[in-house]
DNA sequence: AGGTTAATTATGCAAGCGTATAATTACGCG
DNA sequence: CGCGTAATTATACGCTTGCATAATTAACCT
């Protein structure tokens, strides 16, 4: 006869759903409150479970953070390339560039998230691995797209030539992404997108402006 | 008759020196261990004082962090522009660009420091102010230099034209700075510098390569 | 149905955190 | 030289943190 009706009701859920909910809660908290605010208790509360459950799915908080980081970076890359559509390589590149510096890819939360993780990247080897993989994953795809664009123009698309171009284009994109996210109200609507397209075009030695919508 | 010889010996120092020592300790710790590692106790230990003293000079830890952030950002800008020397505007710009993506301005510690602070920038209005002031401070000086370079070439140096160019150049610089610091071993020695000079030149529509040393 | 078990909650603990306050001591000044 | 005081140390408090462990319960299986 256990009359303890004040115990919290709950529903059992699959491991994947729970893990994802916990990851989502973690990301939301880090974005809004910073890593400092993403405590085990706060994460549990936001995911509408009790803190003990976290330990049931992630043997340590580090593991949870690693999972969250991985998902965030993958989502960021995927979100960006998903918008890189168009009839010609040039149009796809322009669309990619615009998407990179426009919400939801470029916004305060994304940047805050990324910065919040960077600290742990330096200290955790697994985080470092994810970081490197994510960076190269994005840049390699960018490099491939640049090669296509150059080929279309009949220019040499040797990897020796493309690599520095990809690094440079990636840097402009990252820089603008960063500044747009960290200092949004310093720029006008669409200003960053225009600058991004213009700059990437200049680096590649071609005019990219106006190619997003047409062609 | 107070026989308590185990009390720590100390030397009195001026407020400025102590404050600076505390700031330096804070920066070192955040760079090495992350914000999490920069506890009041750890800072005090590194500065070779006891934790109580921190409260004597900074009424709250937030104040200390703000002071540290201010100093770091100012030092970064100053360090960079200090190397922007040369006979012609073009040479000065090239030197500035190279300095921006080369140690000690661009290294893991600087980037880690910057990222570590970003979290607090979003939450503290005073930090935000320093952030904005620092960003614009750098960019405005960059814009002025770009205007000089364009004028030398006999091109229009209107602020309406220069602003987007400055934003773009600043973005490449920031992007490369970031990637060089966060992923140093992904690039070869001097690779980032070469790419930076090349890209800024492309954005400005001129050849900047090889202008650092000569002219 | 009813027993089994894994999912979930509840509770507790030791360590570390920032901050407050009282006790000491180095050092300048008359 | 000794006195005053500001600089510094010492100690403690309340809170939060990540983690561990025991108690409970929802849902599946036969």
UniProtKB/TrEMBL annotation, chains A, B:
- Acetylation in keyword set: no
Name this protein carries in UniProt: Transcriptional regulator, TetR family
Q: Which UniProt keywords apply?
A: DNA-binding, Repressor, Transcription, Transcription regulation
**From what superkingdom does this record's organism come?**
Bacteria
> Which InterPro entries does the UniProt record give?
BetI_C, DNA-bd_HTH_TetR-type_CS, Homeodomain-like_sf, HTH-type_TetR-like_transc_reg, HTH_TetR, Tet_transcr_reg_TetR-rel_C_sf
Q: Key word Glycoprotein present in the record?
A: no
- Sequence ranges assigned to domain HTH tetR-type in this UniProt record: 16-76
Per the database entry, where does the chain bind DNA? 39-58
**UniProt GO MF annotations:** DNA-binding transcription factor activity; transcription cis-regulatory region binding
- The scientific name of the source species is Roseovarius marisflavi
């Amino acid at each position: 006869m256990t009359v303890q009706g004040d115990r919290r009701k709950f529903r059992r859920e699959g491991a994947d759903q729970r893990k994802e909910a916990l990851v989502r809660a973690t990301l939301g908290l880090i974005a809004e409150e910073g890593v400092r605010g993403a405590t085990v208790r706060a994460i549990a509360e936001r995911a509408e479970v009790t803190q003990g459950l976290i330990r049931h799915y992630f043997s340590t908080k580090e593991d949870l953070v690693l999972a969250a980081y991985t998902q965030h970076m993958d989502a960021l890359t995927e979100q960006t390339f998903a918008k890189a559509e168009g009839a010609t390589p040039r149009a796809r590149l322009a669309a990619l560039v615009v998407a990179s510096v426009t919400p939801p890819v470029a916004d305060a939360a994304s940047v805050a998230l990324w910065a919040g993780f960077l600290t742990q990247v330096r200290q955790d080897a697994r985080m470092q691995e994810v970081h490197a993989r994510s960076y190269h994953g994005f840049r390699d795809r960018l490099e491939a797209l640049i090669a296509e664009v150059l080929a279309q123009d009949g220019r040499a698309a040797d990897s020796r030539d493309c690599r520095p171009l990809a690094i440079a284009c990636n840097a402009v994109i990252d820089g603008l992404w960063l500044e747009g996210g960290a200092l949004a109200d310093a720029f006008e609507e669409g200003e960053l997108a225009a600058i991004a397209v213009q700059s990437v075009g200049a680096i590649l030695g071609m005019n990219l402006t106006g190619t997003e919508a047409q062609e």
